[in-house]
Request: fold
Amino acid sequence: MLKGCQKEMYVLETRESPLFERAYLILRPQKTASLPSDMVVEANRIIGHKNVLQPPSKRATGRFSTFCWGFLCGALGAVIIMLPLLLF
Reply:
């Protein structure tokens, strides 16, 4: 998230990568790179790091099953509450 308007951002565009067209790098306000090559080295280190890109998690199916269980429990509760009213 960008906060404020005094951020220094660099755009790296490449045609060599089959995955990436461009990368946006936003520098921290307290840090400055002494040389442009330092930024390129750091960008390559970040891109090469294995934990940066992770596959999507399986949490979506867990959320759906939780929703279904909650819906069924709510419906069962509504039937239990409404059943005596319907019988009399």
